[in-house]
Write a structure and sequence with these properties.
This protein has a domain at about 40-45 and about 65-200: Immunoglobulin-like. It contains one helix and twelve strands. It has one helix at about 175-180; strands at about 1-10, 10-15, 40-45, 70-75, 80, 85-90, 100-105, 110-115, 120, 125-130, 135-140, 160-165. The chain is globular and about 45 Å long.
Amino acid sequence: MITRSISIAGLTLLVAAAPALAQAPAPAPAPAPAKPAAEAPQQNKAAPPLSATEVSGVTVRISKDPPHVVTTFPENGASVAPGVLVLRVTFSQPMFDESWSYVSTPDGAYPECAATPRLLDDKKSFALICRVTGKTRYAVWINRTPYANFVNRGRRAAQPFELKFATSDADSIWTLKDAMAQDKGLPPGSNPAEPTGKAKPGEDVPDFGGQ
């Protein structure tokens, strides 16, 4: 037993002192769980906040329902020729033209695409010029949490949609004109190359490396 002396008002007392308790070492922190491979945005641009606008004598109605994908090119599950491809997504509502989210997924390869799509004249269809290789399976998410920047004019995000398609071993398509001709649902007069100014209908599509 360990004792120590304490003096109180001239008296010296011997007090038994409890032995010091050994402090157990802190447990090592548990390793963080491995994160699963997540989808990554490829072409992704967020919309600015919607500002209030007064329009005299005009009532603007914006759907409370989220937009959803109606049709695509290629169609989901379709097989298309390799080469130049105009990837089209058509929504159920008019869309905001300056934001989008094309997201890669482990479900398939992501096509080599230009940096910027174009909202076509119907205000519901986005077209993105891409290049695909033969005999390959591709997959692209149109909106995928947390990337949800395909929005309508009221900034309501479109429902997520996964587009899957494959390419055949047919002859490659080399011109934008021929690529556009493959999509019978493309609105008349569409020119998906207009934003970049680097290709016109019928001209060869330029290298995407600088976009």
